[in-house]
Design goal:
Elements lengths: L9 H25 L2 H22 L5 E4 L3 E2 L4 E7 L7 E5 L3 E2 L11 E7 L6 E10 L4 E8 L3 E5 L2 E2 L4 E7 L7 E5 L6 E9 L2 E8 L5 E10 L11 E9 L4 E5 L2 E3 L3 E7 L7 E5 L7 E8 L6 E7 L5 E10 L11 E11 L4 E4 L3 E2 L4 E7 L8 E4 L3 E9 L2 E8 L5 E9 L4 E8 L12 H24 L1
Parallel strand pairs: 2-8, 10-16, 18-24, 26-32
Antiparallel strand pairs: 1-3, 3-6, 4-7, 5-6, 7-8, 9-11, 11-14, 12-15, 13-14, 15-16, 17-19, 19-22, 20-23, 21-22, 23-24, 25-27, 27-30, 28-31, 29-30, 31-32
Length: 463
């Protein structure tokens, strides 16, 4: 079979190539001259190629950031590494709740580094941090975990005397006690705190400090001997002390029965009356009186320290409109701490420690509760008696009952149940007709003399 395939030699193949090239150039010339639509096609094709080239040149890596640590407690220094940002970016900014005091950021070729400190008083939890390149505006977000106890205050602001409730979470389960303090000033008074099973709660009263921001700290620890502030497990938050009514107690401490004067400023001009109470223990305030100084923001008043154990007690003055009484801790009010330094012991003293039946004995007493409105004297040696009491001071008397000679106990009792006792001796009855001679001897002598006289007269008659 004959092979019909054309097999050109080297020379003929070269002539074929040259001929083909001439034909193509001729076709292109004819197309340019006689077919303008081919020009449009070539222009469009060129534009497409240029746009594609520009798009390819703009393709870049996705921006990314990494932290040298993804978590930390407040105060931790964190280093941030940036990459993949636009080559036109020369700087960056970082933002987010935990970010504090970031260093300046310079970008070169889309890369750079910066640092920031985890902001103090940031509650434990997960936060989003954003890093933005400038001037391009390309950004990336990533999460950061703040470790430690979480502390919340309710309310977060208030005047002196405000009672603040706090809660804590993320408490290590081995912590069994906690304390509330402030490194700022003596803003924390009358505090109490407990922790159990990973959470805690407590309260404190805002002390007498100037207006401003104060750091409140809760420290949790093992054992029950107290916690050292800012050591171990602790959290901090800011409480803002606002301007408001202020009261002053004079004196700021006293024993049961002490008379305490109260003065105040900053109350509302619309207040027409005021009241003095204690949310700690109502019994610490007795015989209270309070009045508003007309046309001013001031109040004045006083009260008697009631029969309560030694310790600290919150005294509150509440201002109110009208004259129908004030609801404690509502409207404008102020609180201050009173320290009861000791409890008086009731005592009585008779004007004589011994006497005979029928004698009237005067009794005086002190240290009784100022809430006592009546009193009584009792005991086997007490006959008829009188007793009165006011402001804890007792006065009374009794007639010595006709009882056998001996030692007895006299007791004075106030209407609130407080009492005092003292010993009293009943002496023998000795009312002599002649000084120095008891009446029994005189009577016996008279009887003996009469009998002898009768006897002598009978003998004389018989003799």
């Amino acid at each position: 079979m004959n092979d019909c395939t054309w097999k050109p030699n080297g020379a003929s193949f070269g002539r074929f190539q040259r001929g083909l090239g001439d034909r193509f150039r001729r076709w292109l010339e004819l197309s340019t001259l006689y077919h303008p639509r081919y020009i449009v096609a070539l222009v469009v094709l060129g534009i497409i190629i240029l746009i594609s080239a520009e798009a390819v040149s703009n393709v870049q890596a996705t921006p990314s950031v990494s932290f040298d640590t993804s978590n930390g407690i407040p105060g931790t220094l964190v280093t941030v590494t940036l990459s993949g940002y636009d080559s036109s970016d020369t700087s960056c900014t970082i933002s987010g709740t935990p970010v504090y005091n970031p260093t300046s950021c310079s970008l070169t070729g889309g890369s750079g580094t910066l640092t920031f400190t985890v902001k103090q008083y940031t509650a434990a939890g997960s936060y989003v941090i954003t890093v933005t390149g400038n001037p391009k505006g390309d950004s990336v977000q990533t999460s950061f975990q703040v470790n430690g106890l979480s502390l919340s205050l309710n309310p977060t602001s208030g005047p002196v005397g405000t009672e603040v409730t706090l809660t804590t979470t993320n408490v290590p389960t081995n912590d069994t006690s906690c304390s509330i303090s402030s490194p700022s000033a003596s803003v924390v008074t009358l505090s109490a705190c407990v922790v159990s099973n990973g959470s805690g709660s407590g309260t404190f009263i805002v002390g007498k400090v100037s207006s401003g921001d104060y750091v409140i700290e809760v420290t949790a620890c093992t054992g029950n001997t107290g916690c050292n502030p800012s050591a171990g497990d602790f959290a901090q938050q800011v409480f803002t002390v606002t301007a408001g009514p202020l009261i002053t107690l004079t004196p700021a401490n006293g024993v049961l029965g002490a008379d305490i004067s109260v003065s105040g400023t900053g109350f509302q001009l619309s207040d027409q009356s005021c009241s003095i109470t204690s949310p700690s223990n109502p019994n610490v305030v007795e015989n209270a009186g309070c009045a508003v100084t007309s046309g001013t923001e001031g109040i004045h008043g006083s009260f008697i320290v009631g029969n309560v154990p030694t310790g600290q007690y919150v005294i509150e003055v509440t201002g109110c409109t009208g004259n129908n009484g004030c609801s404690p801790s509502q409207g404008d009010f102020a609180q201050q701490v009173l320290t009861v330094t000791g409890t008086l012991t009731p005592s009585i003293v008779p004007n004589a420690i011994s006497d005979v039946p029928g004698t009237t004995i005067q009794v005086s007493g002190s240290g009784f509760s100022s809430s006592d409105i009546s009193c009584s004297l009792s005991g086997s040696a007490v006959g008829s008696s009188t007793c009165s009491i006011s402001g804890g001071i007792l006065s009374g008397s009794f007639v010595v009952a006709n009882v056998a000679t001996g030692s007895y106990t006299i007791t004075a009792t106030g209407s609130s149940g407080d009492s005092a006792s003292t010993p009293f001796d009943v002496a023998p009855s000795n009312v002599p007709a002649v000084p120095g001679f008891p009446i029994e001897a005189i009577v016996l002598g008279l009887l003996l003399g009469t009998a002898m006289t009768i006897l002598f007269r009978r003998r004389a008659r018989t003799g």
